[in-house]
Design goal:
Layout: H1 2-8, H2 26-55, H3 69-73, H4 78-109, H5 115-123, H6 130-140, H7 149-161, E1 171-172, E2 178-181, E3 184-187, E4 197-202, E5 226-232, E6 257-262, E7 265-271, E8 277-280, E9 288-291, H8 311-336, H9 340-348, H10 353-364, H11 366-381, H12 385-390, H13 402-412, H14 416-445
Parallel strand pairs: 4-5
Antiparallel strand pairs: 1-4, 2-3, 3-9, 5-8, 6-7, 6-9
Helix pairs in contact: 2-14, 4-5, 4-8, 4-11, 4-13, 5-8, 8-11, 9-10, 11-14, 13-14
Length: about 450
């Protein structure tokens, strides 16, 4: 019976035939496809890393084994320590500010009709190379307000509240009745009512006079009042003009402030007219005239953006200008995937827009914000172009970063061993941040 049943049973499925590729086994095909990528990876990544590690263990000539002497220099060389400190500042502030601005731009542009156009404008700096951006911001931060946009704006705002003097270099001329006194100029003798006072000055360039400055004239005497003229006592041409008296070609110091001082107190004051003349009341009789120091205050020249104190924040500002658009685009993509029902539910429950943003939007975007921040951290650890181009030679030491110090040690100072040690150190700094980013991306990709 068993044999009959076995004889009548249908035959089992045939054993599968091994499938082979036309060109050979699957592993061989995969290896052939991966070979070009592996060759490039080895030639462009693995070999330079290995060579840098080996070179960092030798001296500058490359002939003598130096051990860890080059790595010791990372913590004893003043230039490298400054670069390390600046890299910490870059890693803390540049990614944080760029991500924060990107978040604000992404959230706000969702609510405006022209949001796409705004995103395009903010993202446009990403199309500019670091070299071009460095040249642009070197001009933006120029100390001269006539060239640098930053100082032009800053000086304009400053002068709106504290107007600078039109006569910063003015001083008494020859045989002048004025003497210097703590930045101001005071007449040697008291003045008398009814007797005009001549206050000749020199030192103002013709193109620096105020627009309302006119031809200087001699003041006329007025009974019971002190009158006088303050003017530029200089006429072009040898032997031309009279010293101590206004000439037709000479101009008055329009707007110059004159004070009458008795016993250390100001008893009267006036401003010179366009022709330089002024009139003081009878209370000025017997006083000394003073041209206060405010008349000669130097023009405000703005902020030294590229000086030792501000050069690093200024360069970070240029980096933020470039990369805030990158952060905005990634965050906007993440924001598009946020469930609108959660936002609407929060608003229905009575949450304000700020509470919705802080307690709903930001937590939901936390993975995207982390990826953007970590990506920018890796990027700023390698920053070189902006610092090299924007920082002038006088403050480049103060703006130094590790990538720039690597270049200087390897090419300017001829110390390739130390430069290789800096390169290896930079790699060690980047690896943990890169691994964190990879782990987060893998975690998010899991179902």
């Amino acid at each position: 019976m068993a044999s009959a049943a076995a004889a009548g049973a249908p035959p089992g499925p045939a054993a599968p035939k091994s499938r082979r590729s036309v060109t050979g086994t699957r592993k061989v095909v995969a290896a052939l496809f991966l070979l070009p990528a592996l060759v490039l990876l080895g030639a462009l990544v693995l070999y330079p890393i290995g060579y840098s590690v080996v070179r960092s263990l030798y001296d500058s000539s490359g002939d003598r084994f130096a051990g860890f002497d080059n790595y010791q220099a990372l913590f004893t060389d003043d230039g490298i320590r400054t670069a390390l400190k600046n890299n910490v500042i870059w890693v803390v502030f540049a990614p944080t500010v760029s991500t924060a601005l990107g978040l604000v731009f992404a959230v706000l542009t969702e609510r405006v009709r022209w949001g796409t156009a705004f995103k395009l404008i903010v993202f446009m700096p990403m199309a500019i190379s670091m070299l071009a951006a460095g040249i642009i911001f070197r001009l933006v931060y120029d100390q001269d307000p006539d060239k640098g946009v930053a100082n032009a704006v800053w000086v304009g705002v400053h002068d709106s509240f504290a107007q600078s003097s039109a006569f910063p270099k003015a001083h008494p001329g020859r045989e002048s009745p004025l003497v210097a006194q703590g930045g101001a100029f005071v007449t040697k003798d008291p003045v008398k009512a009814g007797t005009p006072v001549a206050l000749p000055m020199v030192g103002v360039a013709p193109d620096q006079f105020p627009d309302d400055a006119g031809r200087a004239v001699a003041a006329r005497p007025e009974p019971g009042k002190v009158t006088g003229t303050v003017w530029q006592d200089f006429t072009r041409g040898k032997g031309v003009g009279r010293l101590g008296a206004p000439d037709p070609a000479e101009r008055g110091y329009a707007g110059m402030r004159i004070e009458a001082v008795k016993d250390g107190k100001v008893v009267a004051s006036a401003k010179a007219a366009g022709d330089g003349t002024f009139t003081l009341p009878a209370s000025a009789d017997g006083a000394r005239l003073r041209l206060p120091a405010a008349n000669f205050k130097e023009a405000y020249n703005g902020v030294d953006w590229l000086g030792p104190a501000l050069v690093t924040p200024a360069i970070i500002g240029s980096y933020v200008w470039m990369w805030a658009g990158f952060a905005m685009v990634l965050i906007a993509a993440g924001l598009a995937g946020v469930p609108r029902e959660l936002l609407e539910q929060a608003r229905v429950d009575g949450a304000s827009e700020w509470q919705v943003f802080r307690k709903v939007t930001v937590p939901l975007l936390a993975p995207v914000l982390a990826v953007v921040t970590v990506t920018l951290m890796i990027n700023v650890l390698k920053v070189f172009d902006l610092v090299y181009i924007i920082a002038p030679g006088s403050s480049q030491d103060d703006a130094n970063v590790l990538a720039l110090e690597l270049y200087r040690k390897g090419f300017s100072e001829g110390r390739p061993g130390v430069a290789s040690a800096i390169a290896v150190f930079l790699l060690l700094l980047v690896i943990p941040v890169m691994l964190f980013n990879i782990r987060r991306l893998r975690r998010e990709g899991r179902p």
